[in-house]
Amino acid sequence: MADFTLLPDLAVRNLGGSVIAASDESFAERENLINPWPAGHQAETFGRKGQVYDGWETARRRPSALGLKVDDRGHDWALVRLGLPGVIRGVVIDTAWFRGNFPTYASVEACAAEGHPSAEELAARAWVEIVPRSPLTGDAEHRFPVLAARRFTHVRLNIFPDGGVARLRVHGEVVPDPRLLTGLTVDLAALENGARVTGCSNLFYSAPANILAPGLPRHQGEGWETARRRDDGNDWVTVELAARGTPRLVEIDTTHLKFNAPGWAALSGRDARVSEEWTPLLPPTRIQPDGRHRFRLDSAAPPAEVTHVRLDIYPDGGVGRLRVWGELTADGERALRDRWDAFDA
Question: For residue 289, what is the DSSP state?
Protein backbone atom coordinates (compact mmCIF):
# COMPACT_ATOMS: atom_id res chain seq x y z
CA MET A 1 0.00 0.00 0.00
CA ALA A 2 1.26 3.49 -0.83
CA ASP A 3 2.19 5.76 2.08
CA PHE A 4 -1.20 7.07 3.20
CA THR A 5 0.44 9.91 5.14
CA LEU A 6 1.09 11.64 1.80
CA LEU A 7 -2.68 12.20 1.56
CA PRO A 8 -4.29 15.24 3.22
CA ASP A 9 -5.07 15.12 6.93
CA LEU A 10 -8.86 15.43 6.83
CA ALA A 11 -9.06 16.24 10.55
CA VAL A 12 -6.36 18.89 10.97
CA ARG A 13 -7.49 22.20 12.43
CA ASN A 14 -6.29 24.45 9.60
CA LEU A 15 -8.47 22.46 7.16
CA GLY A 16 -11.53 22.96 9.35
CA GLY A 17 -11.36 20.03 11.75
CA SER A 18 -12.67 20.32 15.32
CA VAL A 19 -12.64 18.16 18.46
CA ILE A 20 -16.26 18.73 19.43
CA ALA A 21 -16.43 16.60 22.59
CA ALA A 22 -14.39 14.36 24.89
CA SER A 23 -15.11 12.20 27.91
CA ASP A 24 -12.44 13.97 29.97
CA GLU A 25 -9.64 16.51 29.52
CA SER A 26 -8.48 16.99 33.08
CA PHE A 27 -4.77 17.43 32.32
CA ALA A 28 -4.57 18.65 28.71
CA GLU A 29 -7.17 20.02 26.29
CA ARG A 30 -8.76 17.88 23.61
CA GLU A 31 -8.23 20.61 20.97
CA ASN A 32 -4.49 19.86 20.91
CA LEU A 33 -5.17 16.53 19.17
CA ILE A 34 -5.56 18.14 15.74
CA ASN A 35 -3.01 20.98 15.88
CA PRO A 36 -1.17 21.13 12.55
CA TRP A 37 2.36 21.28 13.99
CA PRO A 38 4.29 18.37 15.55
CA ALA A 39 3.80 18.02 19.28
CA GLY A 40 6.35 19.91 21.37
CA HIS A 41 7.44 19.48 24.96
CA GLN A 42 9.36 21.29 27.65
CA ALA A 43 10.24 19.18 30.67
CA GLU A 44 9.45 20.39 34.18
CA THR A 45 6.95 22.95 32.94
CA PHE A 46 4.09 22.79 35.43
CA GLY A 47 0.73 24.51 35.41
CA ARG A 48 -2.17 24.29 37.80
CA LYS A 49 -3.02 20.81 36.50
CA GLY A 50 0.50 19.41 36.49
CA GLN A 51 3.06 18.95 33.70
CA VAL A 52 2.00 20.87 30.59
CA TYR A 53 1.54 18.60 27.56
CA ASP A 54 0.94 19.51 23.92
CA GLY A 55 -1.74 16.88 23.50
CA TRP A 56 -4.91 15.48 25.07
CA GLU A 57 -4.59 13.88 28.50
CA THR A 58 -7.31 12.48 30.74
CA ALA A 59 -7.46 11.77 34.47
CA ARG A 60 -6.53 8.37 35.89
CA ARG A 61 -9.50 6.04 36.00
CA ARG A 62 -9.88 4.26 39.36
CA PRO A 63 -11.88 1.14 40.22
CA SER A 64 -15.07 2.09 42.01
CA ALA A 65 -14.69 -0.80 44.45
CA LEU A 66 -12.02 -3.18 45.65
CA GLY A 67 -11.70 -6.24 43.49
CA LEU A 68 -12.98 -4.58 40.31
CA LYS A 69 -11.17 -5.85 37.23
CA VAL A 70 -8.90 -3.47 35.30
CA ASP A 71 -11.03 -3.85 32.17
CA ASP A 72 -14.12 -2.71 34.09
CA ARG A 73 -12.87 0.84 34.58
CA GLY A 74 -14.32 2.05 31.29
CA HIS A 75 -12.42 4.15 28.76
CA ASP A 76 -11.99 7.69 27.48
CA TRP A 77 -12.87 9.05 24.05
CA ALA A 78 -12.63 12.15 21.86
CA LEU A 79 -15.03 13.03 19.05
CA VAL A 80 -13.63 14.78 15.96
CA ARG A 81 -15.55 16.46 13.14
CA LEU A 82 -13.51 16.18 9.95
CA GLY A 83 -12.79 19.49 8.28
CA LEU A 84 -12.87 17.74 4.91
CA PRO A 85 -15.19 14.72 4.76
CA GLY A 86 -13.91 11.89 2.63
CA VAL A 87 -12.59 8.35 2.35
CA ILE A 88 -10.16 7.57 5.18
CA ARG A 89 -7.10 5.63 4.05
CA GLY A 90 -5.12 5.65 7.27
CA VAL A 91 -4.95 6.94 10.83
CA VAL A 92 -1.94 8.02 12.89
CA ILE A 93 -2.13 7.94 16.70
CA ASP A 94 0.91 9.77 18.06
CA THR A 95 1.84 9.48 21.76
CA ALA A 96 4.84 11.83 21.46
CA TRP A 97 6.24 12.84 24.89
CA PHE A 98 3.72 10.68 26.77
CA ARG A 99 6.11 8.15 28.29
CA GLY A 100 4.56 7.12 31.59
CA ASN A 101 1.00 8.19 30.98
CA PHE A 102 0.06 6.86 27.53
CA PRO A 103 -3.01 4.62 26.94
CA THR A 104 -2.47 0.89 26.76
CA TYR A 105 -4.77 0.46 23.75
CA ALA A 106 -6.72 2.57 21.29
CA SER A 107 -9.38 2.12 18.63
CA VAL A 108 -11.02 4.46 16.10
CA GLU A 109 -14.63 4.56 14.89
CA ALA A 110 -16.17 6.65 12.11
CA CYS A 111 -19.61 7.72 10.94
CA ALA A 112 -21.26 9.75 8.20
CA ALA A 113 -23.81 12.37 9.18
CA GLU A 114 -25.79 14.90 7.17
CA GLY A 115 -25.87 18.53 8.15
CA HIS A 116 -24.27 19.86 11.34
CA PRO A 117 -25.20 17.48 14.17
CA SER A 118 -24.23 18.04 17.80
CA ALA A 119 -22.15 15.61 19.82
CA GLU A 120 -25.32 14.37 21.52
CA GLU A 121 -27.03 13.71 18.19
CA LEU A 122 -23.97 11.85 16.90
CA ALA A 123 -24.10 9.44 19.83
CA ALA A 124 -27.15 7.81 18.26
CA ARG A 125 -25.52 7.36 14.84
CA ALA A 126 -24.29 4.04 13.46
CA TRP A 127 -20.52 3.94 14.02
CA VAL A 128 -18.09 1.77 12.05
CA GLU A 129 -14.86 0.54 13.61
CA ILE A 130 -12.06 1.51 11.21
CA VAL A 131 -9.12 0.78 13.54
CA PRO A 132 -9.67 -2.17 15.90
CA ARG A 133 -8.50 -2.05 19.50
CA SER A 134 -4.72 -2.03 19.12
CA PRO A 135 -1.77 -1.77 21.55
CA LEU A 136 0.08 1.53 21.94
CA THR A 137 3.53 2.40 23.23
CA GLY A 138 4.75 5.62 24.74
CA ASP A 139 6.39 8.47 22.82
CA ALA A 140 5.76 6.82 19.44
CA GLU A 141 3.84 7.28 16.20
CA HIS A 142 1.43 4.45 15.42
CA ARG A 143 0.19 4.09 11.83
CA PHE A 144 -2.96 2.14 11.00
CA PRO A 145 -4.15 1.59 7.39
CA VAL A 146 -7.92 1.79 6.93
CA LEU A 147 -9.79 -0.39 4.44
CA ALA A 148 -13.35 0.92 4.82
CA ALA A 149 -14.00 2.50 1.40
CA ARG A 150 -16.78 4.84 2.51
CA ARG A 151 -17.19 8.57 2.98
CA PHE A 152 -17.07 9.68 6.62
CA THR A 153 -17.66 13.02 8.33
CA HIS A 154 -16.66 12.23 11.96
CA VAL A 155 -14.25 9.98 13.84
CA ARG A 156 -14.13 8.90 17.47
CA LEU A 157 -10.81 8.05 19.14
CA ASN A 158 -11.19 5.60 22.01
CA ILE A 159 -8.32 5.12 24.49
CA PHE A 160 -8.15 2.29 27.04
CA PRO A 161 -8.42 3.00 29.84
CA ASP A 162 -7.05 6.57 30.04
CA GLY A 163 -3.92 8.65 29.45
CA GLY A 164 -2.47 11.00 26.87
CA VAL A 165 -2.34 11.21 23.06
CA ALA A 166 -0.42 14.02 21.38
CA ARG A 167 -1.89 13.99 17.88
CA LEU A 168 -4.55 12.24 15.81
CA ARG A 169 -4.06 12.33 12.04
CA VAL A 170 -6.80 11.11 9.68
CA HIS A 171 -5.40 10.84 6.17
CA GLY A 172 -7.58 10.29 3.14
CA GLU A 173 -9.18 11.50 -0.05
CA VAL A 174 -11.68 14.35 -0.09
CA VAL A 175 -15.15 13.47 -1.41
CA PRO A 176 -17.15 16.71 -1.78
CA ASP A 177 -20.92 16.90 -1.67
CA PRO A 178 -21.94 17.57 -5.32
CA ARG A 179 -25.08 19.37 -4.13
CA LEU A 180 -22.84 22.21 -2.92
CA LEU A 181 -20.97 22.58 -6.23
CA THR A 182 -23.23 21.87 -9.18
CA GLY A 183 -24.67 24.83 -11.08
CA LEU A 184 -22.38 27.35 -9.35
CA THR A 185 -19.12 29.16 -9.95
CA VAL A 186 -16.64 27.30 -7.72
CA ASP A 187 -12.92 27.04 -7.04
CA LEU A 188 -12.04 24.11 -9.27
CA ALA A 189 -8.59 23.87 -7.63
CA ALA A 190 -9.74 23.79 -3.98
CA LEU A 191 -8.70 20.85 -1.85
CA GLU A 192 -12.08 20.97 -0.11
CA ASN A 193 -13.77 20.48 -3.50
CA GLY A 194 -11.66 17.42 -4.28
CA ALA A 195 -8.72 18.88 -6.22
CA ARG A 196 -5.25 17.46 -5.58
CA VAL A 197 -1.63 18.07 -6.50
CA THR A 198 -0.30 15.48 -8.94
CA GLY A 199 3.31 16.64 -9.36
CA CYS A 200 5.80 19.42 -8.82
CA SER A 201 9.37 20.28 -9.70
CA ASN A 202 10.60 21.03 -6.19
CA LEU A 203 9.24 20.97 -2.62
CA PHE A 204 12.38 21.81 -0.69
CA TYR A 205 10.84 24.16 1.88
CA SER A 206 7.15 23.26 1.94
CA ALA A 207 4.56 21.04 0.29
CA PRO A 208 2.79 22.14 -2.91
CA ALA A 209 -0.57 20.84 -1.61
CA ASN A 210 -0.61 23.87 0.70
CA ILE A 211 -1.61 26.12 -2.20
CA LEU A 212 -4.98 24.33 -2.44
CA ALA A 213 -5.86 24.79 1.25
CA PRO A 214 -8.84 26.90 2.35
CA GLY A 215 -8.45 30.40 3.70
CA LEU A 216 -5.50 32.76 3.48
CA PRO A 217 -1.99 31.66 4.45
CA ARG A 218 -1.11 32.90 7.94
CA HIS A 219 2.62 32.91 7.33
CA GLN A 220 5.27 31.98 4.77
CA GLY A 221 5.33 28.31 5.77
CA GLU A 222 1.69 27.75 4.81
CA GLY A 223 2.37 27.96 1.09
CA TRP A 224 4.63 26.18 -1.40
CA GLU A 225 8.25 27.30 -1.60
CA THR A 226 11.05 25.88 -3.74
CA ALA A 227 14.82 25.97 -3.38
CA ARG A 228 16.81 28.61 -5.26
CA ARG A 229 17.48 27.50 -8.82
CA ARG A 230 21.01 27.72 -10.19
CA ASP A 231 20.14 26.81 -13.79
CA ASP A 232 18.05 28.22 -16.63
CA GLY A 233 14.87 26.30 -15.79
CA ASN A 234 11.76 27.18 -13.78
CA ASP A 235 9.61 25.51 -11.14
CA TRP A 236 6.08 24.21 -11.61
CA VAL A 237 3.20 22.34 -9.96
CA THR A 238 0.37 20.35 -11.57
CA VAL A 239 -3.14 20.04 -10.13
CA GLU A 240 -5.98 17.67 -10.94
CA LEU A 241 -9.12 19.76 -10.63
CA ALA A 242 -12.20 18.77 -8.64
CA ALA A 243 -13.73 17.66 -11.95
CA ARG A 244 -13.77 18.76 -15.58
CA GLY A 245 -14.58 22.44 -15.77
CA THR A 246 -14.17 25.79 -17.51
CA PRO A 247 -11.75 28.18 -15.72
CA ARG A 248 -12.82 31.84 -15.75
CA LEU A 249 -10.53 33.54 -13.23
CA VAL A 250 -7.24 32.60 -11.62
CA GLU A 251 -5.86 33.96 -8.34
CA ILE A 252 -2.16 33.64 -7.48
CA ASP A 253 -1.46 34.67 -3.89
CA THR A 254 2.05 35.49 -2.66
CA THR A 255 0.98 36.79 0.76
CA HIS A 256 3.87 36.73 3.31
CA LEU A 257 6.40 35.88 0.57
CA LYS A 258 8.18 39.22 0.71
CA PHE A 259 11.64 38.40 -0.59
CA ASN A 260 11.17 35.02 -2.24
CA ALA A 261 8.11 35.39 -4.48
CA PRO A 262 8.48 34.43 -8.16
CA GLY A 263 9.02 37.20 -10.67
CA TRP A 264 6.46 35.81 -13.12
CA ALA A 265 3.79 33.13 -13.25
CA ALA A 266 1.85 31.33 -15.98
CA LEU A 267 -1.08 28.90 -16.02
CA SER A 268 -1.80 26.13 -18.53
CA GLY A 269 -4.58 23.56 -18.75
CA ARG A 270 -5.31 20.24 -20.38
CA ASP A 271 -8.18 17.81 -20.74
CA ALA A 272 -6.68 14.44 -19.83
CA ARG A 273 -9.42 12.61 -21.76
CA VAL A 274 -8.35 14.28 -25.00
CA SER A 275 -4.64 15.11 -24.90
CA GLU A 276 -1.52 15.26 -22.76
CA GLU A 277 -0.60 18.63 -24.28
CA TRP A 278 -0.84 21.79 -22.19
CA THR A 279 -2.78 24.78 -23.53
CA PRO A 280 -1.89 28.27 -22.25
CA LEU A 281 -4.60 29.86 -20.09
CA LEU A 282 -2.54 32.72 -18.63
CA PRO A 283 0.72 33.70 -20.38
CA PRO A 284 3.82 34.47 -18.30
CA THR A 285 2.72 37.47 -16.27
CA ARG A 286 4.65 39.61 -13.82
CA ILE A 287 3.59 39.26 -10.18
CA GLN A 288 4.64 41.05 -7.02
CA PRO A 289 5.70 39.88 -3.55
CA ASP A 290 3.30 39.70 -0.60
CA GLY A 291 0.02 40.17 -2.48
CA ARG A 292 -3.01 38.63 -4.16
CA HIS A 293 -3.14 38.70 -7.96
CA ARG A 294 -6.35 38.09 -9.90
CA PHE A 295 -6.47 37.52 -13.65
CA ARG A 296 -9.60 37.03 -15.73
CA LEU A 297 -9.05 34.34 -18.34
CA ASP A 298 -10.50 36.13 -21.36
CA SER A 299 -9.82 34.72 -24.79
CA ALA A 300 -11.09 35.11 -28.32
CA ALA A 301 -11.12 31.31 -28.59
CA PRO A 302 -13.90 29.17 -27.07
CA PRO A 303 -13.47 28.74 -23.30
CA ALA A 304 -11.13 25.89 -22.38
CA GLU A 305 -12.60 22.79 -20.73
CA VAL A 306 -9.87 21.17 -18.63
CA THR A 307 -9.29 18.49 -16.03
CA HIS A 308 -5.82 19.64 -14.94
CA VAL A 309 -3.89 22.88 -14.62
CA ARG A 310 -0.17 23.57 -14.42
CA LEU A 311 1.22 26.61 -12.59
CA ASP A 312 4.68 27.66 -13.76
CA ILE A 313 6.69 30.12 -11.67
CA TYR A 314 9.77 31.91 -12.99
CA PRO A 315 12.39 31.13 -12.05
CA ASP A 316 11.59 29.83 -8.53
CA GLY A 317 10.19 31.01 -5.21
CA GLY A 318 6.98 30.64 -3.28
CA VAL A 319 3.21 30.82 -3.74
CA GLY A 320 0.72 30.95 -0.87
CA ARG A 321 -2.49 29.95 -2.65
CA LEU A 322 -3.79 29.10 -6.13
CA ARG A 323 -7.47 29.59 -6.93
CA VAL A 324 -9.06 28.62 -10.26
CA TRP A 325 -12.62 29.90 -10.34
CA GLY A 326 -15.01 28.53 -12.96
CA GLU A 327 -17.93 26.23 -13.71
CA LEU A 328 -18.11 22.47 -13.85
CA THR A 329 -19.05 20.96 -17.19
CA ALA A 330 -22.07 18.66 -17.41
CA ASP A 331 -19.87 15.56 -17.39
CA GLY A 332 -17.79 17.08 -14.57
CA GLU A 333 -20.93 17.39 -12.45
CA ARG A 334 -21.86 13.84 -13.35
CA ALA A 335 -18.42 12.59 -12.30
CA LEU A 336 -18.81 14.25 -8.89
CA ARG A 337 -22.22 12.66 -8.39
CA ASP A 338 -20.86 9.24 -9.41
CA ARG A 339 -17.99 9.57 -6.93
CA TRP A 340 -20.40 10.60 -4.18
CA ASP A 341 -22.66 7.62 -4.92
CA ALA A 342 -19.70 5.22 -4.98
CA PHE A 343 -18.62 6.12 -1.43
CA ASP A 344 -22.01 6.95 0.10
CA ALA A 345 -22.89 4.73 3.02
Answer: S
Same domain flag for 158 and 206: no
For residue range 41-86, list pLDDT tens digits in order: 887 777 777 777 789 999 988 766 556 565 567 899 999 999 999 9
**Can you say whether the dihedral through the CA atoms of 4, 5, 10, 11 is positive or negative?**
positive
Answer yes or no: do 118 and 11 share one domain. Answer: yes
The answer to whether residues 168 and 185 belong to one domain is: no
The runs of H, that is alpha helices, within the chain are: 119-122, 330-343
Q: Write out the residue range of the structural domain in which residue 208 sits.
A: 178-332
Within 8 A by CB and 6+ apart from 167, the residues are 32, 33, 34, 35, 38, 39, 55, 92, 93, 94, 96
Condensed to tens digits (0 to 9), the pLDDT of residues 150-169 reads 999 999 999 999 999 999 99
Q: Return d(Cα 170, Cα 167) in angstroms, integer.
A: 10
Residues 95 and 227 in one domain: no
Instruction: Name residues whose C-beta falls within 8 Å of residue 95's C-beta, 6 or more positions apart in sequence.
Output: 102, 103, 136, 137, 138, 139, 140, 141, 142, 164, 165, 166
Q: In this structure, what are the phi and psi dihedrals at residue 142, rounded to the nearest 5 degrees?
A: -115, 120
